[in-house]
Specification:
- It is a single chain.
- By secondary structure, the chain is of the alpha/beta class.
- Among the domains are: 173 residues, Immunoglobulins (Immunoglobulin-like, Sandwich); 326 residues, Glycosidases (TIM Barrel).
- It is 16% helix and 31% strand.
- The protein is built from nine helices and 45 strands.
């Protein structure tokens, strides 16, 4: 939590120095050279839509204590398309008394305004929730003249103290009564998402009346707003029915300036998920991603168009961009950011817009040209990342072919002097880096703005974690084909990012190419608080409902079977499940049940074939808690009511196979999390195969016979010395958790890379499985979907171990002799 605050403070301070340039050329010159300036102009500018009518809104806010002497209070109206801290409009408020302030603002009718309170006493101080989390934003629906009353719980750096209460409720479709999952509930400065039953809860709200707004991230339901009165140490119920919105076709037509790069992708950035908004706090304070924005079609010289269906009544903020919401986005003639807005009408709409300029300031544009190494994987792209005050999100570069990439930056340069930049693959900076600027702490390459245009030509000598050498050949062995239904799967890693979603299509194609018939996805929720327990999806690290649904559908479109393996993440090392007291265990289990049923519904509604329960995160003490067996049996029964596919239980191994949960008779199979040590050091593949066979026969087979369930062997070995012994040396002593080597976490320099050892371990386990017909499937765990990396993690994507999977899977499935 504190690290997030530090990051946001750095962004806010950086914005104080960051409040965009010319030449047209084509990406598609046959020789890759820059052609001369054009002599023709684009189509004539067309008028922008009539501005939305304004309504007077009265703000009233109560503070937890008087402000320091000389401090002033303001409300900041935020721009999530550019970035929450990057383009606020700040309005001062007037004191009513020492702890109450107010003011009147004219705001657009139909708008959903995002805002937060700050006070200034030399430097700005942002409001906190009662959990000591910075308020991301409050939300207010402007339906006409009105008023809103808010209560600030605390300020940054000032812990909350005082009484509080809870609001909880259920969000339903008003027309059908069906619970709505994934709705955003903004209440009292906090934000939560509804579970699959439409339920939500907001804790630690100061007593008084708070504004609550319920919002669909894609606008498909009309926002609902009401006041919620909280009493100390009490629960306030709030049941809400949302009205579904009819969809209409909206066409965005844009005329662009003459210096727009011909052939470069013109994107449409906006405040809905369809327009690239992730609703997450991403690098550099941005929330929109270029790779998730729609790309407009060129329909004439200097004219672009894009049509999509949007919900009637949705408030849409948008802008046109050659990058993302910050970089290379359109500006007004005075250099300020352009942010357009429209409320979608009841009938089809055509918007006619003209981009005034990409420029801000007097600096000339900067052309970045880079040659990538010859071993850059086919299908991957090169990205560029900028560092004006801290690294912002990467932007895809434009291909010239033959491993040459280019990006022309127009700004915003109005207050920039010098800044850093670097290159990476598939937007995965700090993971798939240019070797010269690799890692989180890299300052990158440096450039200073100039009044004249610049052309920077760089060469990437090598990619980090992608050496040019070839892996050793696979030793072919006779393979016994298995019966229909054999699982040959790949399980994605637990750590995720909003940048991953656009890259899943390529990952699934890679799974097909190595012969997999199953994709096991690991969607997560994050534990971010212990007292009370906060266990919910966090957009920065956990894929939201719509993202997981999209991922499942992409896999199914390629005829891959899909299983969901819901995983628990912890935001900090000191956050663990409380199991000491029965009451703590029961509350833990209530949240765990909601978590599992959420993913069971997600699997059912998107035609996934299996769900995996359990895993390494489940504390063993939970199984010994009073009533644990009955609770788990009841939960599995509930899962079957929600989902009619196969249910697996994930059982960690190594570990004693005698102390296993007593309810395994209620599931359909065992997903055995295999990371067993196979050598004490220096063993051959044959020796490790023999040890794997011994463990399978002496420990796993008796267990399988006792529970009478099918078993899937889920292999996880990092590409590092110590993997064969089951212990990666931790620099602080003991053994390192292999998940600490997963991307996008920083590298652990003390760990020694060894991709061939990982491949040998896979070969040994596959050979042992080949000799045992009672095993019903095998999967590879820890797959990193965005890019090929020969790093130290458990992922096989791009490594020698993938060649062994490619050999074994089609033969075990009987597809290759």
């Amino acid at each position: 939590m504190k690290s997030r605050k530090t990051h946001q403070r750095a962004v806010a301070l950086g914005v104080l120095v960051l409040t965009a340039l010319s030449c047209t050329w084509s990406l598609f010159q046959p020789d890759g050279t820059i052609p001369p300036l054009p002599t023709t102009l684009p189509g004539q500018p067309v008028p922008t839509p009539v501005p939305l009518p304004l309504a007077e809104t009265t703000f009233s806010v109560a503070l937890p204590a008087p402000l320091p002497g000389g401090a002033s209070l303001s409300v900041a109206i935020l721009d999530e398309v550019t970035g929450l801290p990057l383009n606020p409009v700040v309005y001062p408020l007037e004191a009513v008394d020492s702890q109450r302030y107010g003011g009147k603002l004219a705001l657009p009718v139909g708008a959903v305004v995002k805002y937060r309170y700050i006070y200034t006493n030399g430097t700005p101080v942002q409001e906190d929730t009662a959990f000591d989390h910075l308020v991301r934003y409050r939300m207010l629906l402007i339906s006409g003249p009105g008023a809103v009353s808010d209560i600030v719980a605390s300020w940054e750096g000032q812990p909350f103290s005082g009484p509080s209460g809870r609001a909880q409720g259920q969000i339903l479709d008003a027309s059908t009564g069906v619970p709505l999952a994934g709705m955003l509930v903004a209440l009292g400065g906090q934000q939560v998402h509804t579970d699959s039953l439409g339920n939500f809860a907001v804790d630690r709200l100061p007593p008084g009346t708070h504004n609550m707004l319920v919002y669909a991230l894609d606008g498909t339901y009309r926002p609902f707003q009401q006041g919620v009165t909280i009493a100390a140490d009490a629960v306030t119920p709030a049941a809400v029915g949302l009205e579904p919105a009819k969809r209409v076709r909206v066409t965005f037509n844009a005329n662009v300036p003459t210096n727009t790069v011909a052939g470069a992708p013109l994107r449409l950035a906006g405040n809905l998920t369809q327009l690239g908004n992730t609703y997450a706090d991403l690098a550099g304070g941005v929330s929109t991603l270029a790779s998730r924005m729609p790309v407009m079609a060129a329909v004439g010289e200097g004219r672009y168009s894009y049509t999509l269906e949007l919900p009637e009544g949705a408030y849409v903020q948008y802008k046109y961009t050659l990058g993302d919401g910050l970089w290379n986005a359109e500006h007004k003639s005075d250099g300020s950011f352009r942010l357009r807005e429209v409320v979608v009408p009841a009938s089809d709409l055509v918007l006619e817009d003209a981009v005034q300029t990409w420029e801000a300031g007097n600096s000339g544009p900067i052309l970045f040209e880079v040659t990538a190494p010859a071993n850059t994987p086919a299908g991957e792209f090169v990205s560029i990342q900028f560092n004006p005050y801290g690294w912002t999100e990467p932007i895809p570069m434009w291909s010239l072919g033959n491993n040459r990439w280019v990006y022309k930056l127009f700004g915003p340069f109005n207050v920039l002097g010098a800044f850093g930049y670097r290159y990476c693959r598939n937007n995965q900076c700090s993971s798939a880096d240019d070797i010269e600027t690799a890692g989180y702490l890299s300052a990158g390459r440096h450039v200073s703005t100039s009044l004249t245009p610049q052309d920077l030509r760089d060469t990437i000598q090598a990619w980090q974690w992608l050496p040019s050498g070839q892996p050793s050949p696979v030793v072919a062995l006779p393979v016994t084909p298995r019966a229909a239904g054999f699982v040959a799967g790949v399980e994605f890693q637990k750590y995720s990012s909003p940048t991953f979603l656009p890259l899943y299509a390529g990952a699934y194609q890679n799974l097909q190419s190595i012969g997999a018939n199953w994709a096991i996805l690991d969607p997560s929720w994050t534990v971010s608080g212990n007292s009370p327990l906060i266990f919910a999806p966090t957009p920065q690290t956990d894929p939201l409902w719509s993202d997981v649904a999209s991922s499942i559908q992409q896999a199914r479109s390629l005829s891959l079977n899909v299983a969901l393996f819901p995983r628990v993440r912890f935001a900090a090392p000191d956050l663990t499940w409380g199991t000491a007291a029965p009451a703590d265990t029961r509350y833990w289990f209530d949240r765990y049940s909601a978590f599992i049923l959420y993913h069971a519904d997600l699997a059912a509604k998107n035609s996934a074939q299996a769900i995996v329960l359990g895993g390494e995160e489940i504390p063993p003490a939970l199984f010994d808690a009073p009533g644990a067996e009955e609770r788990f049996r009841a939960l599995i029964g509930e899962v079957r009511q929600h989902f009619n596919g196969v249910i697996f239980w994930a059982q960690p191994y190594p570990g004693t196979m005698q102390a296993v949960p007593p309810f395994l008779d209620a599931v359909d199979g065992i997903y055995l999390l295999w990371s067993a040590p196979l050598s004490q050091g220096g063993g051959t593949v044959e020796e490790m195969q023999a040890e794997a066979g011994r463990l399978l026969d002496s420990e796993i087979l008796p267990f399988i016979v006792s529970v009478q369930k099918a078993v899937i062997i889920a292999i996880a070995y990092p590409s590092a010395d110590g993997a064969a012994q089951g212990c990666i040396p931790d620099p602080v002593g003991g053994c390192l958790d292999p998940e600490a080597l997963a991307r996008p976490l920083p590298d652990v320099p003390s760990v020694t890379l060894n991709t061939q050892l990982q491949a040998d371990l896979y070969q040994a386990v596959f050979a042992a499985i080949n000799e045992r017909a009672w095993i019903s499937g095998v999967t590879s765990r820890g797959y990193y979907p965005p890019a090929e990396l020969q790093d130290k993690s458990e992922s096989i994507h791009g490594k020698a171990a993938a060649n062994y999977v490619w050999f074994w899977y089609p033969r075990l499935l009987g597809l290759v002799q």
